From TrEMBL, chain A:
Pfam families: PPTA. Its EC number is 2.5.1.60. Keywords: Prenyltransferase, Repeat, Transferase. Belongs to the protein prenyltransferase subunit alpha family. It comes from Popillia japonica. GO terms for molecular function: Rab geranylgeranyltransferase activity. The lineage of its organism: Eukaryota, Metazoa, Ecdysozoa, Arthropoda, Hexapoda. This is Geranylgeranyl transferase type-2 subunit alpha. Gene3D superfamilies: Protein prenylyltransferase. InterPro entries: Prenyl_trans_a.
UniProtKB/TrEMBL annotation, chain B:
One of its GO terms (cellular component) is nucleus. Substrate-binding subunit (component A) of the Rab geranylgeranyltransferase (GGTase) complex. Binds unprenylated Rab proteins and presents the substrate peptide to the catalytic component B. The component A is thought to be regenerated by transferring its prenylated Rab back to the donor membrane. It comes from Popillia japonica (Japanese beetle). This is Rab proteins geranylgeranyltransferase component A. InterPro entries: FAD/NAD-bd_sf, GDP_dissociation_inhibitor, Rab_escort. Its main location: cytoplasm. The keyword Transmembrane helix does not apply.
UniProtKB/TrEMBL annotation, chain C:
The keyword tRNA processing does not apply. This is Ras family. InterPro entries: P-loop_NTPase, Small_GTP-bd, Small_GTPase. GO terms for molecular function: GTP binding; GTPase activity. Gene3D superfamilies: P-loop containing nucleotide triphosphate hydrolases. It holds the Pfam family Ras.
């Protein structure tokens, strides 16, 4: 009977898969040998380069192959040194960029592919950084936890220079979608030097995050970074301390709130001993709350006590 | 008719509503022969979506067209012929109104450059320049086919029974969805966005930091629902519980009327269950827990029909149905199709409106007040188009009015136009029941030229009472091998319908799997299955 | 004998008389940049494209030629005896158009087009249709015209309709002249090609021509995203960013 609906059994599917794998393995071995044998040839061996691309698009993590490609690219660059604009060279380089795109499609977290892409663009006579920028913006809207993208974005921005305001907005947008994201917070921290004006904004943003979810560590790290800035006045610190005390009332078992309070009282106690005592109490509570880091808190506690001692 | 249907099936299904269609898919899927037939020429019955022209004529339409008893068939002894269809479940209190002129007046035409056969997309291009588009009946009618107007709009929970069934049965392939992009509520005389998710809570500037924490804590408590937390509220309302929590009024409002979809009278346990359902459906598809099917809710039943057809279900719309044949023991024997043909089957499943009068005479009906509005803008304008769900607390928070606003991205209306559906349990007439909500959301009919009203204008409205048989006993008075399928209810989703369909399926075929996963194309071997077990190469 | 005759293959009914075929294509169109992103992140957007078929006195033949046209396109294979419709919900195939990838989902209607009852469910949101007739059978051409009329009346006003005269390999038994069909197509604004599922002639081309004629992946109203809906799958966790309120 023809046209019958037939579903493959799992057995058959397994067999197919095995065959598929063996085929891949053979192809991989063959390509690796081929590349190794012809690596030093000048001009480069076209077949090898093609095979190399095929393997990479399946497994972009073979850095030997990327190195081989770089050698070939250098060869090409060397050859076209004298001419002004070499169309053949440009299309050769564009091809490399396309290859990395293909590889990233398969594995968006491939170090080698990202590196190769940037490496090529740097040597490109007419690099289209703007296009790279929109690409990376798009990519980040789909996966904002891919730190490769954030890194790449920083590299691109250095090349094209775009307005701080736009970048801040972009970062806020990403945080609004998901603030449990070290990368977004960190990226934000690289954008500008804090001054008294923007401090207010940043403190508000970070408070929104820690009040929404005090158990999420990423915003606390950002807060810690803000607090390391000398522009944060003692008044600000006291204000924040007050607000965190309120938060602690609502969530008395959250170690992050206590820790943040200690960061604040740490700097405040330099001028006012009253805060030092609070600090000691908070460390004691932390020891109970977070017994896994008992030793660390004891250490801090000792330091805090000592500080009071010397003052007296 | 240039064809005749086969004369025998395992099961005949009359009506293409959602329950009927699910039963049809489930029966075909396990290899039963199914005839799925409808007197109407469209899918969905009371669940259908219509274009503007069709819905315009809906009031005139007789639900049971093509049904007549004048069939000329030979009956065996003891058999009797019963007329198909009844009028117990018709839409009532229908009132339809255009609020825009039929055509532009002459002087307007000369000002307006567009001609009769203008390219629609071209006129839309200047949408952004701020000039408001002038709509006429004629102009909307020209775009009639871009409308898919639900008479029973439905929203699905991303982790509700419907979505789970769609995925587990692999029927999800047959339809596309859009996530509801914002949930609104009516708070302090304004429409406000409800912070649904953790990120919404974080980014909502109208919620103070302390409120952020309250909201998150409360939702957490409902989610964990430890016994101690609610032990004192077994007979109290959810509203009481919230009040006792010493929350701010805003937080209580968001939680009670929006996230818990409750009223001041909702029992505590129900409110908590609703919150769990809401939160469980978050973070699966899109920013809110809700999904709407592209091209209208009428697509829902079609997805199931599609699977039924692929597994052999025979589909025939627009059929002349001459009557049902029942034998002396009141057992269903067959369906008379056309004038003469009797199609036999051992089971009959039918939409409640297709049922003979005698089976439904004692079915109790309550009504849903529904209103559909075509407007020229969103109830809460914004940069991008939203798919909006609004729970509007009516009458001091005693009833909720469900409001769904659909834009062109849902494939249910042309660009520049929104469709707003409203529904609530009927108390008076639809118009009276919805009046409060309508007056808040739209421009008033009386034009007040002094004050510019930023609210959208209603271009067309349609009010009606739709029957709800959710609480009725549909087995009473019904012969053993015949089953009635309820129509749309007042719920937001269709999970109740799935439950009903499953019940009907299980009474016919106990101990058989209900809609097992259908194979993917990749799993199917095309061609000669016998000698080509595994394709070469 | 009644005037119908059908065979059932594992749940797929095949009518052997007076069949006219309806198939749906859904187009998935993605540019290369998005491709890179979407593959890992979200479901591809889709478009609906219904495809219409021919009918024939001799149903078997028609079924064969029709299903086989699709099979040829999808699998690059031709089965002489491909009788029933394919049975799967739909098959998918990708064609490359400049730097755009267009993916078609091809749906069939399980072989019961004669009731005209499966077609209505394809009209909504449909963007293109192929109406197929058999060049060796004048009747099928007549029926194809009816389909075109129905499409123009029922489907979206912007639908792209293509007319395909199939079985071009049997041109020596031709009953419908090329010119006749071409004129009809021109008058009605249809794409037209004669195809052969057997020799693969024009099979890919007709889909390519449709892909070209369809509007490019327009970004409808900016940030709201494309005009396409979301497919629900188990694997699609949505934007994980959204996160659950209470983890």
């Amino acid at each position: 009977m023809h046209g019958r609906l037939k579903v493959r059994s799992t057995e058959e599917q397994k067999l197919l898969k095995q065959k598929e794998q063996q085929k891949k393995l053979r192809a991989y071995k063959y390509a690796m040998n081929q590349v190794a044998a012809t690596r030093k040839e000048i001009p480069f061996n076209k077949d090898s380069l093609m095979l190399c691309a095929q393997v990479l698009s399946v497994n972009p993590d073979v850095y030997t192959l990327w190195n081989y490609r770089k050698e070939v690219v250098l060869q090409q660059l060397e050859m076209s040194k004298d001419e002004e604009v070499d169309d053949a060279l440009v299309s050769f380089l564009e091809n490399e960029i396309k290859l990395t795109e293909q590889c990233l499609l398969d594995n968006p977290k491939s170090y080698s592919s990202w590196h190769h892409r940037y490496w090529i663009l740097q040597r490109h006579p007419k690099p289209n950084w703007q296009q790279e920028f929109s690409l990376i913006t798009k990519y980040l809207t789909f996966d904002d936890r891919n730190f490769h993208c954030w890194d790449y974005r920083r590299l691109i921005i250095n090349k094209i220079g775009i307005s701080l305001c736009n970048e801040l907005n972009f970062s806020t947008e990403r945080l609004n979608i998901n603030f449990s994201n070290y990368s977004s917070w960190h990226y934000r921290s690289t954008l500008r030097k804090l001054d008294s004006e923007c401090l207010e904004e940043e403190l508000e943003l970070v408070q929104n995050a820690v009040f929404t979810d005090p158990n999420d560590s990423s915003a606390w790290f950002y807060l810690r970074w803000i607090l390391s800035d000398r522009n944060v006045t003692n008044e600000k610190r006291e204000e924040l301390l007050e607000s965190l005390t309120q938060l602690l009332d609502m969530d008395p078992d959250c170690k992050w709130i206590l820790m943040a309070k200690c960061w604040l009282t740490g700097s405040l106690s330099l001028t006012d001993n009253h805060f030092a005592e609070k600090r000691i109490m908070d460390y004691k509570k932390l020891k109970e709350l977070d017994p896994l880091r008992k030793g660390q808190y004891s250490d801090y506690l000792e330091c805090a006590k000592k500080a009071i001692g010397t003052e007296k | 008719m240039d064809y005749e249907l086969p004369t025998e099936f395992d099961i005949i299904i009359v009506g293409t509503g959602i329950v009927e269609s699910i039963v049809s898919a489930a029966a075909s899927r396990i290899g039963k022969t199914v005839l799925h037939i409808d007197s109407q020429d469209y899918y969905g019955g009371f669940w259908a979506s219509f274009n503007l022209e069709q819905i315009d004529k809906l009031c005139e339409r007789n639900q049971n067209a093509n049904v007549d008893i004048s069939a000329d068939v030979q009956l065996n002894e003891g058999e009797r012929l019963i007329q198909i269809g009844n009028n117990n479940f018709d839409l009532k209190n229908t009132s339809q109104k255009w609020s825009i002129p039929e055509k532009l007046e002459l002087k307007d035409v000369s000002e307006n450059v567009e001609g009769d056969n203008c390219d629609v997309t071209e006129t839309e291009a200047d949408n952004g320049t701020g000039t408001e588009e002038v709509w006429t009946q004629e102009k909307l009618m020209r775009e009639s086919r871009k409308f898919n107007i639900d008479i029973a709009p439905k929203i699905q929970f991303a982790r509700g029974d419907f979505v789970e069934l769609l995925i587990s049965s692999n029927i999800a392939r047959y339809s596309e969805y859009r996530s509801v992009s914002r949930v609104l509520t009516w708070l302090n005389g304004e429409l406000e966005v409800v912070p649904c998710s953790r990120s919404d809570v974080f980014s909502n500037p109208k919620v103070s930091v302390i409120e952020k924490r309250m909201l998150m804590k409360l939702l957490g408590a409902c989610m964990d629902s430890e016994e101690n937390e609610f032990k004192d509220y077994k007979i109290k309302t959810f509203h009481t519980y919230l009040n006792d929590k010493r929350l701010t009024d805003n937080v209580i409002h968001y939680v009670l009327y929006a996230i818990a979809m409750s009223t001041v009278d909702t029992p505590c346990s129900e409110g908590v269950e609703n919150i769990k359902r809401f939160l469980n459906s978050l973070g699966r598809f899109g920013k809110t827990p809700f999904l709407y099917s592209m091209y209208g809710s009428g697509e829902l039943s079609q997805a199931f029909c599609r699977l039924s057809a692929v597994f052999g279900g025979v589909y025939a719309l627009n059929q002349n149905l001459g009557g049902f044949v029942f034998d002396a023991e009141n057992k269903f024997k067959g369906l008379v199709c056309g004038k003469q043909q009797v199609i036999k089957a051992s089971h009959l499943v039918m939409g409640i409106e297709k049922s003979p009068e005698e089976f439904v005479k004692s079915v109790e009906v309550s009504y849903i007040s529904r209103g559909i509005f075509i407007t020229n803008g969103s109830v809460k304008g914004s940069e991008k188009e939203h798919l909006t769900l609004l729970f509007y607390p009516l009458k001091g928070g005693r009833e909720l009015c469900n409001v769904i606003e659909l834009g062109t991205l849902t494939g249910t209306c042309p660009k520049g136009i929104y469709i707003v559906h409203m529904f609530t349990k009927q108390i008076n007439t639809p118009k009276e029941d919805l009046e409060e909500c309508v007056s808040k959301l739209f421009q008033s009919e009386k034009e007040d030229s002094d004050v510019k009203d930023a609210r959208p204008q209603v271009l067309w409205s349609f009010y009606y009472s739709a029957p709800d048989t959710n609480t009725a006993n549909l087995r009473k008075d019904v012969p053993e091998n015949a089953f009635l399928c309820p129509g749309p209810d007042c719920d937001l989703d269709i999970d109740y319908s799935i439950k009903k369909a499953k019940e009907i399926f299980n009474s016919m075929y106990p101990d058989v799997e209900f809609l097992p996963r259908a194979p993917d194309p990749e799993e199917i071997i095309i061609g000669d299955g016998s000698d080509e077990q595994i394709p070469k190469k | 004998m009644k005037n119908y005759n059908f065979a059932k293959y594992d749940g797929f009914i095949l009518w052997r008389c007076r069949v006219s075929k309806v198939l749906v294509l859904r187009k998935i169109s993605i540019d290369s940049v998005e491709n890179l992103i979407r593959k890992k992140s979200v479901q591809s957007p889709t478009r609906k494209v219904p495809k219409h078929g021919e009918q024939n006195r001799d149903g078997t033949e028609t079924e064969r030629s029709y299903a086989s046209l699709v099979l040829r396109f999808v699998k690059g294979q031709f089965h002489e005896y491909q009788e029933s419709t394919i049975g799967a919900a739909f098959l998918t195939q990708t064609v490359c158009l400049d730097d755009t990838t267009v993916k078609f989902e091809i749906w069939d209607t399980a072989g019961q087009e004669r009731y005209h009852s499966l077609a209505p469910m394809y009209y909504r949101g449909a963007q293109a249709a192929i109406v197929v007739y058999d060049i060796t059978n004048q009747d099928t051409f007549g029926r194809a015209k009816t389909w075109v009329k129905e499409l123009q009346r029922q489907a979206s006003p912007t639908i792209v309709i293509a007319l395909a005269g199939n079985k071009q390999d049997l041109a020596n038994k031709r009953m419908v002249e090329f010119e006749e069909a071409q004129t009809y197509a021109d008058e009605n604004g249809l794409l037209f090609m004669e195809t052969s599922a057997k020799t693969a002639m024009n099979v890919n081309d007709i889909f390519l021509a449709i892909a070209k004629k369809l509007p490019k992946n327009e970004q409808v109203t900016g940030p709201g995203g494309s005009g396409q809906g979301r497919r629900l799958t188990e694997g699609d966790a949505g934007s994980k960013a959204t996160g659950n309120c209470c983890k």
